[in-house]
Amino acid sequence: MKRIITIFLVLYSIPVWSYLFSSDDSLALNKVVIDPGHGGKDPGNLGTGRYQSQEKDIALDVSLKLGAYIKENMPDVEVIYTRDKDVFPKLYERTALANREKADLFISIHCDSFTKPTVRGTSTFIMGLSKSNANFNVAKRENSVIELEENYEEVYKDYDPNSIESIMLLNLTQKSKIENSALLAGLIQQQFSNRVGLHDRGVKQAPFLVLWM
Fold first, then answer.
1. Which residue among 62, 127, 164, 178 is least crowded, i.e. fewest CB within 10 A of its CB?
2. For 58-69, how does the pLDDT look when each residue is reduced to its tens digit (9 = 90+)?
3. How many CB atoms lie within 10 A of CB 50?
4. Phi and psi (nearest 5°) for 81?
5. Three-state DSSP class for 152?
6. Are 62 and 120 in contact (CB under 8 A)?
7. Model confidence pLDDT, tens digit, residues 73-101
8. Contact 83, 36 (CB under 8 A)
């Protein structure tokens, strides 16, 4: 399997064009939560075994670099990490942190895996119902991490990561976030393509629990 960088993204409230160059504190991007995927007892994707690093390691490295870039270029923006070392924050703890801190932006960093050797590049996912079985399967795989948590049945109540009904309920609550998230996701993909030279695999929608929460 090959691993490629994948980003899960939620832009909470204000339009992209309003805050990118705004001097108005009420519109400005003030706080970003960066979530390095997986961690601790959850290694994420393991790759082919060619390298010792697992998804959790790469996601953490990329997340810390991203945070450093933001602090260097946007010093007024506060950066908060859901983890900054090899630990396993529960899924609801990651999102509760972002909500409690009233973050303007939530970014979750992952490395997806594929069996086809031709797959390469980067993707940015936003919350939504997927028209692709492949995207839906990725979401199911990521959402199933809750089963590593103690008492997950009680914490997540009636949510079933394998149920299309659960997925549809997630999507209904996120309509207001999709347009803003899609705009910023497109800008992220442009940066990967134009500045880094990575293959653009596009902006996609999928029902990730971490984005809904």
1. 164
2. 999 999 999 999
3. 7
4. -105, 140
5. helix
6. no
7. 999 999 999 999 999 999 889 999 999 99
8. yes
